[in-house]
Design goal:
The complex is a heterodimer of chains A (1060) and B (888).
Chain A (H helix, E strand, L loop, with lengths): L4 H7 L5 E5 L5 H14 L7 E5 L2 H15 L6 H6 L4 E4 H11 L1 H4 L6 E3 L1 H17 L3 H6 L2 H12 L2 H8 L3 H20 L2 H12 L6 H18 L3 H9 L8 H4 L2 H24 L8 H31 L1 E3 H12 L2 H10 L2 E4 L7 H10 L4 E6 L13 H13 L5 E3 L1 E6 H15 L7 E4 L9 E5 L8 H21 L3 E4 L4 E4 L5 E5 L5 H10 L4 E3 L9 H14 L4 H9 L7 H9 L7 H6 L7 H13 L5 H12 L1 H5 L5 H18 L6 H13 L15 E5 L8 E6 L13 E4 L3 E4 L1 E2 L5 E2 L2 H26 L2 E9 L5 H13 L2 E3 L35 E3 L1 H8 L1 H9 L13 H13 L5 H7 L5 H16 L12 E10 L2 E10 L3 E6 L10 H11 L3 E6 L4 E5 L1 H20 L8 H5 L15
Parallel strand pairs in A: 1-7, 1-8, 2-3, 2-6, 4-5, 6-7, 9-10, 11-22, 11-23, 14-16, 14-17, 15-16, 17-22, 24-26, 27-28
Antiparallel strand pairs in A: 12-13, 18-19, 20-21, 25-26, 26-27, 28-29
Helix pairs in contact in A: 1-2, 2-3, 5-18, 7-17, 9-17, 12-16, 13-14, 14-16, 18-20, 22-34, 22-35, 23-24, 25-26, 25-32, 25-33, 29-30, 36-37, 38-40, 41-42
Chain B lengths: L3 E4 L4 H9 L4 E3 L3 H6 L7 H8 L5 E2 L2 H15 L5 H18 L12 H19 L2 E2 L4 H7 L7 E3 L7 H10 L5 E4 L8 H12 L3 E4 L7 H10 L9 E7 H17 L7 E4 L3 H15 L3 E3 L2 E3 L4 H14 L4 H8 L9 H10 L4 H12 L11 E3 H14 L2 H5 L3 H17 L6 E3 H14 L1 E3 L7 E4 L9 E6 L19 H9 L7 H17 L1 E13 L2 E2 L4 H5 L15 H8 L9 H17 L21 E3 H9 L1 H9 L14 H21 L8 H14 L8 H17 L9 E13 L2 E13 L2 E8 L8 E2 L5 E3 L2 H13 L5 E8 L4 E3 L6 H17 L11 H4 L4 H4 L10 H8 L1
Parallel strand pairs in B: 1-6, 1-7, 2-5, 3-4, 5-6, 8-17, 9-15, 9-16, 10-15, 16-17, 19-21, 22-25
Antiparallel strand pairs in B: 11-14, 12-13, 17-18, 20-21, 21-22, 23-24, 25-26
Helix pairs in contact in B: 3-7, 4-5, 4-6, 5-6, 7-8, 10-22, 11-12, 13-14, 13-20, 17-19, 26-27, 28-29
Classes of the chains: A alpha/beta (1060), B alpha/beta (888).
The complex binds iron/sulfur cluster (SF4).
């Protein structure tokens, strides 16, 4: 695809460049071309750093660059080097810096990175201990619960916290004054202020009571404007009374009302400002108190942090924020900066508006003289809660500009068609103020007839609670979507560039929070429309996880009645409450349900008890994940959830929990410790994200934040009246201003310091601005058709959009028919067809290669064979002190290498005692010295001759101790000669080498046992039968006194015959 | 006869032919390659190890690590020697592999390279002093021994390094053959260099025309450059990893079912370890013999974890948590609940305390764990062995194949760790080394043998497989991204190349990776299936660029065979087949139950409606019971009928109810003191402190972690309450504390306790303490909204007349102990109260205890039965009215 003019200007800029890339303007395309441009200018990929916001974006960018390069690049090494190029997220970059300069970064050189979730899990488990390190006397000043929550808040952003803790009053006082001044100006420049003044000055009715009010109003206005007695005057304005005045005195009702309205108007304005509390804000006693406590917090925080740091150091782990902090620490060394300056000459940074200040600092240190491309869109900066700061982008852009490189803009949208684009422009122009950028549309023609933008709100709630209004809103959205689908509305197909009828997958519903999405989903599903909700909520809150958790809890502690009861009532067993009720009648006091039921034959619970008993036995040897698998196998749990409504979601949650447990069980493989760890996570409210699902052809539901970077033909932005949750954080901090917190007064009520109010205000302001941008992101996701809905007529996003909507569209009313409120059942998932191939049977052992000696083992006891060969079990036997195996090994080795003295043995078997080696050496020498063995010391004899023999499916490998042209010979150092045992082994040797006799030389006993040709022929059938049974996986135990007494698995075998 | 280089794009058949003639000793890098030629494995490494001078050995990983630590300590002195040694080891070894020696002028190197070279030199020196070699230098050292050449076939070394080439050249007598599959493109640049190198050593090229035979060979060709239409192998894009693994195993099962031997099938994953656990899990479900061959470090085994805990417990001097974990580890006791509850309430910390508990409860002597501070190395090892014996770990491990392997592996490592015997070191230094052992020494993730093997591409170079399943064909997975070495990055390596140190460069590494895939393709003889998962966890994945290079496009997988009973049951459940399948019948029952719970149908006996009346006349209700019943009938049912009660107090948290208890009891005692001793001042801190102490002990709060710091806050809160004038106004006299009452209310027998009753000039004042800051919401009204307060009206109507029949009641209120103020709550009307009573009775009469919390969810907020009742969004589909109809 060719670049547009704008794209080309950015991609081929000779110097550093800052690019503002509007939504859907082909930014990745431009970046890939820019990358190629650098390669063509001679920069190796190893010298270029490309940073993205997510791993997904990094992967995509690399893939995109690879495609862009195609065969356009002459240098094959550059093409190969692209695979090693630093195209990554910030975290990966920081991790690299930490690894390469661990000493300067102050990290262990071999650290592991804890991802988001792991980091939270780690903290949850380590936090209590860290709190314990805070000296006792500090708790006297900050109570435990506040300390706990303050420390947690600070740890969420440790670097900012450290900076904030170092601030003093002098740092925030000027800002306070400034904010005060601004508030005052906003107050006296408000249009209501002028109007009121205007009206009150135009009318008068001397003598009338209202006229007195009018005059005091004007007095207050005047004194505020002149800047004296401010607080009193404001107070006076707030307290104005208008329930006086006679129409007669004023001449007409209109005049009277005008004056009253004007006074009311300014009273409201004053009240609003007073409530905000900024204009009169002065440091108060709570500031004094907070400041007095600040040293305590400093000390405590230092303790907690260093404790946690030490723990991390010990365990050699770093979380994401550590990575940034330590990378910064490393880069503060000149040598480290030089190191990277030598390597990295070009930087491309995407989504720059989402950069946080630490990342900004990191980049500053890395890019002093480097060629820079930064791409961002201030309008799409929506990660304030992750400390992203749009100001970072702005200052960098200005900085690049100041070096003579004007910013570039991508404003041609390839996403949205012209008409809709116009509407979006109109909406946001008055809202985004300075940030606004009009986007042009590449696509001029409309995909379907108007309207392309609809706004629907509930105008009159008729007193219905908001929940029910939301339900009606949900119905409305479902109806609209159904209509679009029924009408087969045409949409633009991005891949083919043509129009086609709409499909489910073309539609998305976005909202600010996850909470209303379930409602929308249900409404759609009840219309038979498939939906897909990407995530939201914590895995541990899902029913499937709770069921599994209950089971694990029960297995960890069968006396946990709640867990037991939960398991019984769950789809594992679905025992009825009637049954439980009956059983409860005989439940003795102080006896656990489990104990009670174990001895209580009852039809309703019998099966469950059987199953659980079995699991309780398995619990001693199996890991939690396997126990859950087993539980599923014996109860059919997943079969149940796979047939319930929302089956894919449920199955994914079940599997997600299994995967999570798999991580938690690492090391212990034990139920008890997994249950304990889970408990900690539940109490610390660690949010474990739910597994993602593949969308498929379904209407997608997600939050606006999750929708970033995505697009759909039809987008419904819903729940527009929801207000941002009120934020009553106990502690607030800002790197430049300081840190403060709410304090309890005598009565235990929370009080705010001036700094608190100031920080609260700033936060609210920032949020207000961000909320606008969030809506901007939401609305610009649509290609063809946009629907906005709200369950009320004001508040939240609706208020924000209000100034823009006026000029763009007329608002439709959502009808309030009551039948929209009826609960509707969700359909079962579609019944899948039964596949033609059903392979639930066994497929044998899968064994295909074995040592020859395995035949011997099988012949003795197939179960024993299974332990050794299939399971790889070593077995357990009380050591009898004679080291049979070791002696055998050394003897064979000595024979093979024709060793005559001790030295080489001790060099090779340094872990064995001299006695053993001595004994082995003597045994080995037997063969060379004894007359008995002379016939076998054939000059052409081969030691250690490897053979393979195929028997049925299985290849048997072996090493013949001694092979002569006539026979095979096996050395044994056994205490007791038992040639019959080894018959199949010797048979196999002979068979493989086509010898007709085989001997066993018993070195301890100076004996030779011979298998004659006749013997060997007779063994053929047995050997084949054994091989066959092995392949089929038939391993019936064959216990016998003799066999079991010498068996290494007696200890663990259920069938073993113990002597005595 | 000279020495030959066989150059052939697809060399297998010729190599096999040569090998079959049995005149050449066959050398291959891996077992699988050897197997493909029908030979035993003998690699260059194996050969080289045998050539080492007498009296020398290869340093075990542990010894190597120790030597490197020493070298680093002497040379660089970083903060963290252990970590540095671990991080640097791969680079040091790469360096050792790259050339026989480093006689380089260091002044042309960067500081980093200089350091590394010095460390490496020092490392080698240290090893030499001990007559040891590093595994990475073995080939070079073997060459120096000038081994006797013999005629050999060298196969499978398709990307030979310089040390490999040099050794090959040294050992190959006339008649030897090296096989190198080679093509013309850029990919083979390094191969061509190798050929030239051999040529200079007077090897002769013998080039063969390529004749494509197998599908794998054709695919390989396609990978290099598009060829005419090839048969396109199956390529599937699964929705997620689970589906990918399932789909693959279903196909494997199909093959096995058709009689294909497990040896003829192999599953390939670039990163075996990331796929291994899930593959094994699902293979277990499907009954497919599958073999993962990778190793896992000791510290991921139960045994290793136990050792880790042991080290920590000793090192930290037996703190509660760590020691408890050690003793309750499944490998040790799995101590029963009794032991555990004893431990929990005694809360021992420190050796002596633990020793006592173990002695008295388990009859187990812990003294073996008491170790000194410094000792000889062999002493520490011996002590550890004694500990293992005392805890009988060998036997305990024997239950699991992998654990007994781990036990053995550790014991073997201990032999080395004991040397030099006379060295003195501290326990914590020793413990540190032990941890190192746990991290370095590995055991097979899955011991045993047989089955379909899971391999990585590099372990099957040159082999042959009829059926191959290549998993994870996704961008960033296969090809694996080329990673920077954190010690010598590619920039540094380029510079070193100029001064004669040939470490691998980025472009070479990328080509290696591509070649690896090319050779992988060549192993296929019958069929291959490529696959990847669109989602890996929460991460979206793109198809591997190699797929495009092969001209393949991943499609949704077709219908796969059903490979396990579990999967079959999912399909059969709604079809009412297989009546003989007990598990399925159970599942069908559970499904029917769950469907109804999820639907808008009225609640039934699986949702609390037992239909079995409970005679309320037989029961006495506490006020809080009635509140529960009125707020969510099921909650009451669970609590009182199923007797699930309050959950067991959590071990380390102060639940709100426990906190409430604490406050109540302390205040009760304080007032009692006041009653017996009227001179006492209520505000006296000493008074509070004394009562607080007795209550915290009685309630065993002192066992809570951090109690010493947490109690301060509670003391402060209570002191504030006592100081607050409105808490106990002047003129009031506390005439009853925690006063128990009984009475009848609307035919219901009631009982309860009033926290405090004051006599005032206006009459009695009934007070209920609350720890929260708002009054309780009360029970649900007819619309399900929790708003009818029961408690205070019942105090007034029942408690006061019962306790003080003659007195009049002035008022009653809740008092918030945290807010130190009265909380007011409107009294419900008589009618409302009567309705509540009727409703409660109806629930009991009809055995009707539906899961039906109030609409605002107040009931659930402090309810312990969420796990049991299965509440959730499903309740929004349940109509409230019908339920009450039922009950009427
Ligand atoms: S969690 Fe809620 S619905 Fe469940 S029993 Fe408790 S109060 Fe009732």
């Amino acid at each position: 695809m060719m670049l547009t003019k704008q794209q080309a200007a950015a991609a081929y800029a000779v110097h550093s460049v800052a690019v503002t890339a509007g939504a859907g303007t082909g930014k990745t395309h431009m970046l890939a071309e820019r990358y190629l441009y650098h390669l063509e200018s001679g920069y190796s990929p190893l010298t270029i750093v490309a940073l993205t916001f997510t791993e997904k974006a990094a992967t995509e960018l690399r893939s995109r660059i690879r495609q862009t390069i195609g065969d356009r690049l002459a240098n094959p090494d550059f093409v190969a080097e692209l695979e090693a190029a630093q195209i990554s997220t910030f975290h990966a970059l920081a991790a690299r810096i930490c690894r390469e300069h661990s000493d300067a970064a102050g990290v262990p050189p071999d650290f592991a990175v804890l991802d988001d979730l792991d980091g939270k899990v780690w903290l949850a488990e380590a936090f209590t201990e860290a709190l314990d390190q805070i000296p006792l006397h500090l708790y006297k000043q900050v109570p435990y619960s506040s300390m706990r929550s303050i420390m947690l808040a600070l740890l969420g952003d440790p670097l900012t916290a450290t900076k904030a803790l170092a601030r003093r009053r002098k740092d925030w006082l000027p800002i306070l004054q400034q904010v005060k001044q601004e508030a005052l100006e906003a107050f006296v420049h408000h249009k209501d202020w002028f109007n009121t003044k205007d009206i009150l000055q135009s009318y008068a009715a001397p003598g009338d009571k209202l006229n007195d009010v009018r005059e005091s109003t004007l007095d207050a206005i005047a004194s505020i404007e002149q800047g004296h007695a401010f607080a009193e005057s404001l107070e006076a304005l707030c307290d104005l009374k208008v329930n006086v005045g006679s129409q007669k005195a004023w001449g007409s009702k209109e005049k009277l009302d005008a004056v009253k309205d004007a006074i009311k108007c300014i009273r409201e304005l004053a009240q609003e400002h007073q409530k905000q509390g900024l204009m009169t804000l002065e440091p108060n006693i709570w500031d004094d108190q907070a400041e007095a406590i600040l040293p305590v917090l400093r000390e405590a925080f230092e303790q907690v942090r260093s404790q946690l740091q030490q723990a991390k150091q010990r365990q050699r782990v770093l979380d994401f924020s550590d990575l940034e902090i330590h990378a910064l620490q490393a880069l503060n060394h000149q040598a480290v900066r030089d190191y990277y300056a030598q390597r990295w000459q070009v930087f491309l940074i995407d989504e720059f508006q989402d950069t946080n200040p630490i990342q900004g600092e990191l980049l500053e240190l890395l890019t002093a003289n480097q060629l820079l491309t930064i791409v961002g869109d201030a309008k799409q900066s929506i990660y304030g809660f992750r400390r992203a700061d749009v100001k970072v982008f702005e200052s960098w852009r200005d900085h690049i500009y100041s070096a003579g490189n004007p910013p570039k803009e991508l404003s041609l949208s390839f996403r949205t068609h012209h008409t809709l684009m116009q509407s979006i422009n109109t909406i946001f122009e008055p809202i985004l103020n300075g940030l606004h950028q009009n986007l042009d549309a590449h696509r001029q023609e409309e995909p379907h007839t108007a309207p392309h933008l609809r706004v629907l709100t509930i105008q009159d709630t008729h007193g219905l609670p908001i929940d029910q209004c939301r339900q009606i809103e949900a119905q409305q959205i479902a109806d609209l979507i159904k209509q679009l689908l029924d009408d087969q509305v045409m949409v633009y197909d991005k891949l083919t560039g043509t129009l086609r009828p709409i499909e489910y997958r073309d539609i998305a519903i976005l909202s600010r929070t996850w909470s209303p999405l379930e409602l929308y989903g249900q409404a759609l599903e009840s219309q038979g429309i498939p939906i897909f909700q990407a995530g939201g909520g914590s895995l541990l809150e899902t029913r499937e996880a709770k069921d599994a958790w209950a089971l694990l809890r029960f297995l960890a502690d069968p006396t946990d009645d709640i867990a037991f009861m939960a398991v019984l009532r769950s789809p594992f067993f679905a025992v009825s409450d009637r049954t439980l009720f009956q059983l409860a009648q005989t439940l003795p006091d102080q006896v656990s349900w489990w104990k009670h039921l174990k001895h209580q034959p009852n039809a309703g619970s019998y099966a469950a008890i059987q199953v659980l008993e079995k699991l309780l036995i398995e619990r001693h040897s199996e890991a939690p994940t396997r126990l859950l698998q087993l539980a599923d196998r014996v109860t059919g749990y997943t079969a149940v959830i796979a047939n319930l409504p929302n089956a894919p979601r449920r199955e994914a949650d079940w599997l997600g929990f299994l995967a999570f447990v798999r991580e938690l069980e690492q090391g212990s493989n034990d139920v008890l410790s997994v249950v304990q760890r889970l408990k900690i996570l539940v109490t610390s409210e660690v949010e474990v994200p739910r597994p993602a699902l593949e969308a498929g052809n379904a209407v997608q539901l997600m939050t606006i934040h999750a929708s970033k970077g995505l697009e759909w033909s039809v987008v419904a932005v819903a729940d527009l009246t929801r207000r941002s949750p009120s934020d009553s954080s106990q502690v607030r901090f800002d790197p430049d201003l300081g840190l403060t917190f709410q304090l309890a007064d005598e009565a235990g009520d929370n009080q705010k310091s001036a700094l608190y109010t100031l920080l609260e205000y700033r936060k609210r302001q920032a949020e207000k601005e961000e909320n606008k941008r969030v809506l901007y992101v939401a609305l610009t996701r649509a290609r063809d058709h946009l629907i906005l809905t709200a369950a009320g007529n004001k508040g939240g996003g609706l208020d924000i959009l209000h100034p823009g909507l006026q000029g763009a569209v007329s608002i439709e009313e959502i009808s309030m028919e009551q039948d929209r409120l009826h609960p509707v059942d969700i359909e079962d998932p579609p019944l899948p067809s039964i596949p033609t191939r059903i392979l639930t049977g066994t497929v044998g052992s899968g064994l295909w290669e074995l040592p020859v000696t395995a035949l011997t083992e099988y012949a003795q006891c197939p179960q024993r064979f299974r332990y050794r060969y299939v399971d790889g079990h070593l077995g357990y036997r009380e050591a009898n002190g004679n080291h049979g195996t070791e002696i055998g090994t050394v003897t064979h080795w000595a024979l093979q290498h024709q060793i005559q003295e001790l030295q080489p043995l001790s060099a090779n078997f340094s872990h064995l005692s001299i006695d053993i080696l001595q004994e082995a050496l003597i045994l080995a020498q037997q063969f060379h010295q004894r007359e008995l063995y002379a016939p076998y010391r054939h000059p052409e004899g081969l030691a250690e001759h490897a053979i393979t023999l195929k028997l049925g499916q299985i290849t048997f490998n072996g090493i013949i101790d001694w092979l002569t042209p006539e026979c095979v010979l096996d050395f044994k150092t056994d205490q007791e000669p038992k040639p019959h045992h080894h018959r199949l082994q010797l048979w196999a040797y002979a068979k493989a080498t086509e010898r007709t006799t085989a001997h066993i030389a018993y070195l301890r006993h100076s004996q030779v046992h011979t298998f004659t040709a006749q013997d060997l022929t007779e063994l053929q059938d047995e050997a084949e039968a054994v091989a066959n049974a092995i392949a089929k996986g038939q391993y019936p135990p064959q216990p016998s006194q003799t066999s079991c007494s010498s068996c290494a698995y007696l200890e663990i075998c259920d069938h073993g015959m113990r002597s005595g | 006869m000279s020495r030959l280089i066989y150059l052939e794009a697809q060399p297998y058949f010729r190599a096999k032919e040569v090998a079959d003639q049995n005149q050449l000793a066959v050398t291959t890098p891996t077992k699988t390659t050897a197997r493909a030629l029908g030979k035993q494995k003998r690699s260059l490494q194996d050969f080289a190890m045998q050539q080492l001078p007498k009296g020398t050995t290869i340093a075990s990983p542990l010894e190597a690590q120790r030597a490197l630590r020493e070298a680093i300590h002497q040379t660089v002195q970083p903060h963290d020697v252990e970590g540095t040694a671990r991080a640097w080891m791969p680079t040091v070894q790469a360096l050792l592999r790259s050339s026989p020696s480093f006689n380089i002028a260091l002044d042309s190197c960067t500081e980093r390279a200089t350091q590394l070279l010095q460390v490496t030199q020092r490392y080698v020196d240290i090893l030499r002093q001990q007559n040891q070699f590093d595994t990475a230098e073995v080939l070079w050292r073997a060459v120096e021994q000038q081994p006797e050449p013999h005629p050999a076939l060298i196969y499978g070394y398709f990307q030979p390094r310089l040390d490999e080439l040099t050794l090959i050249d040294a050992i190959a007598a006339d008649g030897s053959i090296v096989v190198l599959p080679i093509g013309t493109g850029e990919l083979f640049r390094e191969s061509r260099v190798a050929v030239e190198w051999l040529q200079q050593k007077s090897w002769t090229i013998h080039a063969f025309e390529a004749s494509l035979q197998t599908i794998g060979e054709k695919l390989g060709q396609q990978f290099l450059a598009p060829v005419e239409a090839i048969a396109k192998p199956s390529t599937y894009a699964y929705s997620n990893v689970e589906a990918e693994v399932r789909g693959t195993l279903a196909q494997v099962k199909q093959l096995l079912h058709e009689g294909v031997s497990a040896r003829d099938i192999t599953i390939i994953a670039r990163d075996e370890i990331s796929y291994g656990p899930q593959l094994l899990e699902i293979a277990w479900e499907c009954g497919i013999p599958l073999r993962a061959l990778y190793a896992t470090p000791l510290n991921t085994t139960r045994f290793g974890a136990w050792i880790d805990l042991l080290l920590e417990a000793i090192e930290q001097q037996f703190p509660f948590e760590a020691t408890a974990k050690l003793l309750r580890h499944p490998l040790y006791t799995n101590p029963d609940a009794e032991f555990w509850s004893a431990v929990r309430c005694l809360h021992p910390t420190g050796f002596t305390a633990w020793q006592e508990v173990c002695q008295s409860v388990l009859n187990f002597d812990l003294s073996v764990l008491k170790v000194g501070h410094r000792a000889r190395r062999d002493f520490w090892v011996e002590r550890l062995q004694t500990i293992l014996k005392t805890f009988d770990l060998r036997r305990r491990c024997s239950r699991w194949a992998r654990e007994s392997l781990a036990f053995n592996a550790l014991n073997q490592a201990l032999v080395n760790l004991a040397k030099p015997e006379e060295e003195i070191l501290t326990w914590s230094a020793f413990a540190q080394e032990m941890r190192e052992v746990l991290a370095i020494v590995g055991v097979p993730a899955q011991p045993g043998r047989g089955g379909v093997e899971l391999h990585s591409p590099s372990s099957i170079i040159g082999a042959r497989y009829p059926y191959l399943f290549v998993l994870g064909m996704a961008e960033e997975t296969l090809p694996a991204p080329v990673r920077n070495d954190c010690v010598l990055d590619f920039h540094e390596r380029k510079a070193l190349r100029h001064i004669g140190i040939p470490l691998e460069l980025a472009s070479e590494a990328a080509r290696q990776e591509a070649l690896l895939f090319y050779y992988l393709l060549q192993t296929i003889t019958e069929a291959v299936v490529f696959s990847y998962a669109s989602l890996n966890g929460r991460q979206e994945q793109l198809p591997s660029p190699y797929l495009a290079q092969l001209g393949l496009k991943a499609i949704a997988p077709p219908e796969m065979p059903i490979a396990s009973l579990e999967a079959l049951q999912k399909l059969s459940l709604r079809r009412a087949t297989h009546p003989e399948d007990v598990v399925l019948q159970n599942a069908i029952h559970a499904w029917t139950v769950e469907c109804r719970r999820e639907s808008s149908a009225t609640q039934d006996e699986y949702d609390g409606v037992t239909g079995m009346p409970i005679d309320y006349r037989d029961r006495i209700f506490s006020v809080s019971q009635l509140t529960k019943l009125g707020l969510c009938p099921f909650q009451w049912f669970a609590d009182k009928v199923l007797k699930l009660g309050e959950p067991e107090e959590s071990e380390d948290d102060l639940s709100p109810s426990r906190r409430g208890n604490l406050y109540h009891k302390v205040l009760e005692l304080v007032f009692k003191e006041l009653q017996t001793n009227p001179q006492q001042s209520l505000q006296d801190p000493a008074l509070l402190e004394a009562q607080f102490q007795s209550v915290e002990q009685a309630m065993k709060l002192t066992d809570l972690p951090l109690w010493a710091v947490r109690r301060i806050e509670h003391l402060q809160t209570l002191q504030r309450v006592l100081n607050e004038p409105n808490f106990f106004p002047d003129g009031a006299e506390a005439i009853a504390l925690e006063a128990k009452f009984e009475g009848i209310w609307h035919d219901l027998k009631l009982t309860g306790r009033v926290d405090r009753i004051d006599r005032t000039p206006q009459g009695l004042v009934l007070i209920d303490y609350k720890t929260g800051s708002s009054p309780p919401k009360g029970v649900s009204d007819a619309n399900g909204k929790a708003c009818i307060d029961l408690q205070l009206p019942l105090y007034q109507q029942v408690a006061a007349p019962a306790l003080f029949p003659a007195a009049t009641v002035a008022t009653s209120y809740y008092y918030s102990l945290t807010k130190t103020k009265k909380l007011s709550k409107a009294l419900p009307s008589e009618q409302e109260l009567a309705d509540v009573a009727d409703r409660c009775k109806a629930h009991l009469n009809h055995g009707h205890f539906p899961v039906q919390p109030d609409v605002g969810g107040v009931a659930c907020q402090y309810c312990a039965f969420d796990l049991v009742c299965r509440q959730g969004s499903r309740l929004s589909r349940k109509a409230r009215k019908e339920n009450t109809h039922d009950a009427d």
